[in-house]
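Appendix B, Record 12. Input sequence as logged:
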Amino acid sequence: MNLDIVTAPPLGDLPHGFFGRDGGVSTGAVAGLNCGLGSGDDPEIVTANRRVAADALIEDAPLASVYQIHSADAVIATEAWPIEERPHADALATNVPGLLLGIVTADCAPVLFADRQAGVVAAAHAGWRGAIGGITDAAIAAMIRLGAQPKNIAAAVGPCIAQKNYEVDPAFPDPFLEENPENARFFIEGPAGRLHFDLESYVAARLAGAGVGRVWLAGLDTYASEDRFYSYRRATHRAEPNYGRQLSLIGLSPDKS
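Logged structural output:
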């Protein structure tokens, strides 16, 4: 089965990847490697897709994920929770070798983190609400509790909606400008005279402001790349009944000792 896996050079040889929609067994509007349990897809099929993705990184590894709520809440994972017992959060961190951390997105920004010196990794789901609320800061704080240091953390921002396709309402910038007037740089006027938001750059700025040692951007647009990625906004514009979610994973290699 061919999988489309985007990897980030700063994360080195750690098991990680931003998965596209290639591969998998979902059909219809969510055809491919749909990993969203809330997508309306058959849960057994979604679970099978998630297993395929996890096995591509660490065979038979447990996969810890959260029930995502567009929050600024991060948790520490020591094991994989049963699906029905997943904590409500949008980031998770671990120092347990062999445990994969996963978050799902469909235009929001997936962020993978690693302090390889400390042996700590994290994953975060950063939509605009979570981003301005501080979800990346919360992920970093969880890593610090496990012994990481911001200057040693590498963060990778995966495929998300690009500014040219992220049109927003006139009042949308208000909380960003209240946070910092310099956030005006993340907005431009689009061809139709409406504002467009640069989510990827805003998330990168938050990471840099938190003292992260290195920030890498995938620079891939989920909205524009229909054959490669799922997109909530694209599905909404087409009045499609549902939409898939792509999975992003990171972990520490299993302890061989």
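Helices lie at 43-57, 128-133, 135-145, 174-179, 199-209, 232-237.
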